[in-house]
Design goal:
Elements (H helix, E strand, L loop, with lengths): L1 H29 L4 H15 L4 E5 L5 H30 L5 H15 L4 E5 L2
Antiparallel strand pairs: 1-2
C-alpha cells in the first residue's frame, strides 16, 4: 500500500515539491556558507519525493544551533517551501482521492519551516 501511495504522491505533487527543495539546496550549496541548510533541503526534498513509510522525529541532541539555524532557514527558503506545501494541499483537497495527499502535505509544513533538529526515519 505504501508503494502505491508513494507512486500516486510522486505524480500528483511529490516531483514538483522535490524540484523546489532541489533548487533551494542548489542555491544553498552555491553560497558555500549555507551548505548545512543545503544538506537539510536535499534531505527533506528526497523525503518529499517518497514520504509514505517514513516519519519525522526530533533529534534529542539538537540544541541552540538548530534553533538559530531554523530562524535563518525560515528567512532564506522555509517560508516559500511551506507555501508550496499548503498550495499543493489545497489543490489536492479538491478531489476525494487527493484528501490523504493533502493531509500528508500539511504534515510536511512544520518540517519545511524548521528542518534542523529533525531526523527522517523509516516507520516500523
Amino acid at each position: 500500500m505504501r508503494t502505491l501511495l508513494n507512486i500516486i504522491w510522486l505524480v500528483l505533487s511529490g516531483f514538483w515539491l522535490f524540484l523546489g527543495y532541489a533548487i533551494a539546496a542548489l542555491v544553498m550549496f552555491i553560497l558555500i556558507v549555507t551548505i548545512p541548510w543545503g544538506i537539510a533541503a536535499w534531505r527533506i526534498g528526497v523525503y518529499s519525493l517518497w514520504p509514505f513509510g517514513k516519519t519525522v522525529v526530533d533529534k534529542p541532541n539538537a540544541g541552540v544551533w538548530s534553533v538559530l539555524g531554523n530562524i535563518i532557514w525560515v528567512i532564506l527558503a522555509g517560508w516559500w517551501l511551506a507555501i508550496a506545501h499548503v498550495t499543493s494541499a489545497i489543490a489536492l483537497a479538491i478531489t476525494i482521492i487527493g484528501i490523504p495527499f493533502a493531509w500528508a502535505n500539511l504534515k510536511m509544513v512544520p518540517v519545511a519551516l524548521l528542518p534542523l533538529g529533525k531526523d527522517i526515519v523509516d516507520k516500523p
